[in-house]
Design a protein that fits this description.
This protein is of the alpha+beta class. It is 41% helix and 22% strand. The chain has one domain: Gcn5-related N-acetyltransferase (GNAT) (Aminopeptidase, 3-Layer(aba) Sandwich), CATH 3.40.630.30. An eight-stranded mixed beta sheet has the order 1-2-3-4-5-6-8-7, sandwiched between helices.
């Protein structure tokens, strides 16, 4: 059973797409950016088509167990690199979770039909950032994105052992069904309204603004570095 519609994969790929890894938490719909439990700046926004490198680097940092839960089987770096290339070149909606400016988690929404009434979702977070509520926030953003694009039924598939994904899906009102080694979660949502559209627009707009501020801060920091080193030399 495929967790997401099959993408053309290279011969080195070791597994089909199947499951995801998310964290149980209470939903928090506060405006972005917010502060994490360790005081980090957290921004959730859509990934652009020119951010393949960020997506690839994030996937490469996943530990073997997180990779297995996300894709259903062990996968190698070649598979992950090819997957990132194809994912951002499709019409999927891909939400990224940035912690202090670094992409640490991704939620994906892919459409199953031409009318976009049905869609599948997937999630993954790097191991150090699991269990902190970030998966729940990605899930919330993805459900809103699906609703605003006319999706009426959202499906997620995971391995039976992926209890975190099952808990978060159940928390959002999903109906769970067990088939062999897989669990299928189905979420039915009404179509978009003014509130859901405004919520996504607000999140994306604010995320863009703070991403630009972070980019400027980092850029100015790089420009100032030689002058700081020169000043330190004079002090010495």
């Amino acid at each position: 059973m495929s967790f997401l519609p099959q993408l053309p994969l290279p011969a080195e790929a070791e597994a089909p797409l199947e499951s995801s890894s998310v964290e149980p938490s209470r939903v928090r719909s506060a405006q972005v950016p917010t502060r994490g439990s360790a005081g980090e700046t957290i921004v959730l926004r859509s990934l652009r088509s020119d951010e393949t490198a960020l997506f690839t680097e994030h996937l490469a940092r996943l530990d073997p167990e997180t990779r297995r839960l996300r894709f259903g089987n062990p996968v190698n770096d070649t598979f992950l690199s090819r997957y990132a290339d194809l994912a951002l070149s499709s019409d999927a909606v891909i939400k990224g979770c940035f912690v202090d400016g670094v992409l640490r988690g991704v939620g994906e929404l892919r459409f199953l039909s031409g009318d976009r009434a049905d869609a599948e979702g997937a999630f993954c977070l790097e191991r150090p950032f699991q269990g902190r509520g970030l998966g729940d926030r990605l899930f919330e953003r993805l459900v809103t994105a699906a609703r605003n694009r006319g999706v009426h039924r959202l499906f997620l598939t995971c391995l039976r052992e992926n209890r975190r994904m099952q808990r978060i899906a159940d928390h959002h009102g999903a109906e769970l069904s067990f088939t062999g080694s897989d669990v299928i979660a189905e979420i039915r949502r009404p179509y978009a309204d003014a509130g859901s559209v405004a919520r996504e627009w607000r999140d994306e707009s604010e995320a863009f603004v703070f991403a630009m501020l972070d980019w400027r801060r980092r850029g100015l920091g790089r420009l100032a570095a030689p002058f700081r080193r020169l000043a330190a030399g004079f002090r010495d």
